[in-house]
């Protein structure tokens, strides 16, 4: 049975709008106009292409230092500045676009908004993305905040939406546009404002955590106030395990089958697909950190008194350890845990043996499941000397890291493109799994390669279904080696280096000119070095 959410009481009620509001009157209220850091808006130098240090400094002066400090702790960078990835806001944008009865508004430069909406629709979004345009004048005067507020009030229709999400991109964040001054609720519609600047959130994977955590915090406070809506399918009769991390659709079903002998059920997957699932996620008996980088979300679960278990039921060893950890966290009887192991582990071992992989493979990506994929490959018989992930090291991936390192795998957290490329050159794998530039470089070297996001993440990884699931696509790619060798032998070095491009005539090498140009460059380098020493 669904329980209608009551009106807020206490401190939360102070920020709730209950009375009819005239939008124009609210927008011109002097008290609602925030103070904007004018220096951040004076020139194009603090636009999207400005240096991260300048944007970060401007954001701190504009009053965003607290949130930037929080991001620095939750999403630590290094050993370099930031992985080369798509705009991080793409992650949080996708989370909102996948949710029922949820509206999304972006506040940022027009070029950024265009790119984000294009990419989102390219990946299957079928929903309008709201946009509040701005210029230097509206930033300086605070009119942008008024425009955002007006847009939110006009959009807040409880017949259409449960939630409205407003996201500040780089420039509004650097300028200090204060989304926290928006009301928490308008006409029964929840209002959630987040900052997802490229200079504060390293990857799009972690931006998912920014929004998921903001929604979990809001939902947790709602639960503290009283009864909330039950899940669409009703409350589970068995204790549930909340799964954190985006997964292949069949994986939660498979995990639920493995939990059944323990007397448990699979709960919601966070990020969720609708608001009421957040309540059920918070109600889980234990939280499974399938993807280990949801640091802010895990903090909300800990505040709700929930225990978190790392790793995942991947392969034989991973499934055995995970069932043991989940059972212990939920005080499941020893005979039930053993029964689950005896039922599923032999099936997993048989599935792995039936589809072996005999190859040296490097793995890199930015999804957060790279270590899990490497574990499954190794248990399938592959040799994995290197795993690079754009995500940071957290305590929730320690079990995977230790298991891989014990088998000779080098793990690089916050891996850069250069690190991943160097690994391909160093280990000369039979197959390279990675991002688009890794796949491109590997194929140029006549090495078969697979795009992690579209070809590896789009398969089940866990339990019996995951065992052997990668073998088909991996072995098919490995079988293409002879084709690469034939093409490499036929084309040689045609089209490489200075001969790259389309030519009507065969390029003629001008050795004398090249040597002269090389000497000029060397002379300029020596001159700069001498000037530095003065």
Structural class: alpha/beta
Number of helices: 22
What portion of the residues fall into strands of 2 or more residues? 5-15%
**Overall shape:** globular
Mean pLDDT: 85
Order of strands across the main sheet = 1-5-6-4-2-3
Helix content: 40-55%
Question: Largest sheet, described in full?
Answer: 6 strands, mixed
Strand element count: 15
Task: Specify Rg, calculated over alpha carbons.
Answer: 26 Å
Poorly predicted ranges (pLDDT <50, ≥5 residues)? 1-33, 40-46
Distance separating the two termini: 80 Å
Detailed description of the structure:
By secondary structure, this protein is of the alpha/beta class. Helix 17 links the parallel strand 14 and strand 15 (449-451). The protein has 22 helices and 15 strands. It has helices spanning 23-27, 52-74, 89-97, 110-122, 136-141, 143-155, 170-174, 204-225, 250-259, 276-282, 295-303, 315-329, 334-354, 370-379, 398-405, 417-427, 436-444, 452-456, 463-466, 471-478, 481-491, 511-533, and strands spanning 16-17, 102-107, 130-131, 163-168, 185-186, 189-195, 240-244, 265-270, 286-288, 307-309, 360-365, 383-389, 410-413, 431-434, 449-451. 46% of the residues lie in helices and 12% in strands. It is globular. The longest helix has 23 residues, at 52-74. The chain has a 6-stranded mixed sheet, sandwiched between helices. A 5-stranded parallel sheet has the order 13-12-11-14-15, with helices on both faces.
């Amino acid at each position: 049975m669904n329980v209608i959410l009551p009106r807020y009481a206490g401190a939360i009620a102070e920020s709730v709008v209950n009375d009819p509001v005239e939008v124009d009157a609210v927008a011109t209220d002097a008290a609602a106009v925030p103070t904007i850091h004018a220096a951040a808006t004076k020139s194009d130098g603090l636009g999207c292409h400005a240096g991260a240090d300048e944007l970060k400094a401007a954001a701190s002066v504009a009053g965003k230092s607290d949130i930037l400090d929080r991001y620095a702790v939750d999403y630590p960078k290094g050993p370099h500045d930031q992985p080369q990835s798509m705009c991080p806001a793409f992650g949080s944008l996708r989370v909102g676009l996948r949710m029922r009865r949820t509206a999304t508004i972006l506040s940022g430069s027009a070029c950024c908004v265009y790119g984000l909406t294009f990419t989102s629709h390219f990946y299957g979004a079928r929903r309008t993305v709201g946009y509040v345009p701005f210029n230097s004048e509206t930033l300086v005067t605070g009119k942008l905040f008024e425009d955002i507020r007006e847009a939110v009030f006009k959009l807040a229709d409880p017949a259409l939406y449960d939630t409205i999400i407003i996201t500040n991109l780089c420039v509004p964040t650097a300028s200090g546009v204060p989304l926290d001054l928006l009301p928490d609720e308008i006409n029964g519609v929840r209002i959630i404002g987040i900052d997802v600047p490229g200079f504060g959130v390293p990857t799009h994977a972690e931006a998912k955590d920014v929004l998921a955590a903001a929604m979990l915090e809001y939902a947790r406070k709602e639960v503290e106030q009283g009864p909330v809506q039950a899940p669409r399918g009703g409350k589970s009769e068995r204790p549930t395990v909340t799964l954190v991390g985006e997964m292949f659709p069949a994986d939660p079903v498979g995990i639920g089958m493995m939990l059944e002998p323990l007397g448990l059920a699979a709960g919601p997957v966070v990020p969720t697909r609708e608001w009421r699932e957040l309540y059920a996620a918070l109600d889980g008996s234990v939280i499974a950190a399938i993807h280990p980088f949801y640091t802010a979300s895990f903090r909300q679960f800990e505040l709700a008194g929930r225990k978190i278990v790392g790793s995942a039921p991947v392969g034989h060893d991973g499934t055995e350890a995970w069932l043991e950890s989940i059972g212990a966290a939920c005080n499941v009887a020893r005979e039930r845990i053993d029964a689950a192991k005896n039922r599923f582990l032999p099936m997993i071992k048989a599935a792995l043996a039936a589809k072996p992989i005999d190859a040296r493979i490097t793995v890199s990506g930015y999804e957060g499941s790279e270590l899990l994929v490497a574990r499954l490959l190794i248990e399938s018989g592959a040799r994995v000397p290197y795993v690079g992930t754009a995500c940071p090291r957290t305590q929730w991936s320690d079990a995977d890291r230790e298991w891989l390192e014990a088998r000779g795998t080098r793990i690089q957290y916050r891996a850069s493109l250069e690190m991943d490329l160097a690994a391909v050159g160093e280990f000369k794998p039979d197959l390279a799994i990675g991002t688009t530039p890794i796949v491109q470089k590997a194929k140029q070297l006549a090495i078969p390669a697979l795009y992690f996001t579209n070809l590896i993440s789009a398969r089940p990884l866990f339990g019996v279904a995951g065992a052997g699931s990668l073998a088909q696509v991996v072995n098919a790619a490995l079988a293409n080696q002879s084709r690469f060798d034939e093409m490499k032998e036929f084309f040689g070095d045609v089209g490489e280096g200075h001969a790259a491009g389309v030519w009507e005539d065969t390029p003629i090498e001008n050795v004398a000119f090249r040597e002269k140009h090389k000497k000029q460059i060397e002379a300029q380098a020596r001159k700069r070095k001498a000037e530095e020493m003065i």
